[in-house]
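Appendix B, record 7
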Amino acid sequence: MPGFGDIVKKAFYLGVGLASYASEKAGGTLSELRSQVQKLADEMVAKGEMTTDEARRFVEDMMNQAQSQAEDGSGENTRAEPRRIEILGDDEETVKSSQSEDVEKLRDQVRRMQEELRRLQGDK
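Structure tokens (predicted):
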């Protein structure tokens, strides 16, 4: 089963595609678009990639985005530049720093446990 990150990426790309499609087809009906989004959401629910509540919100969000894009683009005759999409990964320095902190915490915990063990052995 794909992870949550994959679902978010799919939803984002679908939203971008829907917004683009809606702005190009502003004169067309949004009911057809709604049925396509609903079908995709139903498939994702069937695969267990999202719950029914998430699917409902997903469809509503996508339709709201498509409608707002259609309204924004309907008054303009010029073609807008596409937005750049940048997918960022984890910052390696942040990951290394976090790992170093975790290692140091574990070392401190081992030291405390060793001291406690020595203390307990000394009490006998």
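Remarks on this record: The chain has two domains: 4-74, 91-124. The longest helix spans residues 92-123.
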